[in-house]
Amino acid sequence: MELEEKVPGGKLVRLSMDGKGDDKITISGDFFIYPEESIFILEDTLSKLGPDESMEDVEYALYKTVKYNDIELMGLDIYTIARLYKGIIDVESNRA
Amino acid sequence: MWRVIGLNIYRAAETMALDDAIGECVASGASQPTIRFYKWLPPGAVSIGRFQRIADEVDLNTCRNLGIDCVRRSTGGGAVFHDPEGEITYSVIAPARYFPGGISESYRQICSCIIDSLSRLGISSEFKPVNDVVSGGKKISGSAQTRRSGVIIQHGTILYSLDRSVMFSVLKPSRLKLLDKGLTSFGDGVTCVKEECGASIAELYEALLDGFTDDKDWRFGDVSESEKDLAMALLKKYLSPEWNFSR
Predict the structure, then answer these.
(1) What pTM does this model have?
(2) B2-244 CATH, one of 3.40.50.1980, 3.30.930.10, 3.20.20.80, 3.30.200.20
């Protein structure tokens, strides 16, 4: 399943979860991340979250990841990523 | 002293590998800071951003039928159709200290060369963060930047003419972007030098040369043998499905 959002004044962000057991999360879109390899750290952060994390917890986990790894986001922000993640988790929870 | 590599024509994967190779050589001090201009081998190519999924952005069947190459860039940003006669592409490869003030500011500084170039043709334009130059609210140039080993590699296109039918037959931009911009069609959101003034592509090139080199100490130069060798080694990455389909 996937959700997408256009960041106001920014770029398009898609978040997808493959749902094949390992719940691999992919963040894609036309944004910029510096350094580029940090995308995997962000995806890994989301993959390690439990299904019951609150929006604030998700945002805080992403905030810590960005801050401690010196990641610069351009055209996207942690709030959009968190919102898309929670959106997918909520849909998946309702399905279960 | 800057090196300027004049207009050449490349295949998509070749030009990506060459930017990386020059970047490595600038980082090691073996090459001078470089500005290069280039066009794309007919029938053109699609480049996608580092974080895009190729199947989301590109009509691969149409590309295959038209013989159009697809390549994933090392830089972020969006998918671009590179029309061989419809654009001039540039790369600026230099130590990051040449563009102080952070990443956003370096985009602004390098894009100011484009704005200057366009003004030499009588086209008024402005920088639109994150990475665009717009004229009359329509995109006329887009850029993307990566940083490695203290070196900036920023490349981008300046649209000379537009074949909107081919462009939007190979690209699949999200409808969300259309809604966000308040447009009825994607073609309405872009413009080009030819539609803004009567300049030829040769005049655009001359303006870009002037706009990018103004206030710089520079000389024309060629790609060095070590850059060529390195680019050849890096080419495999940009031709590989593992890279191009990595998302």
Answers:
(1) 0.95
(2) 3.30.930.10
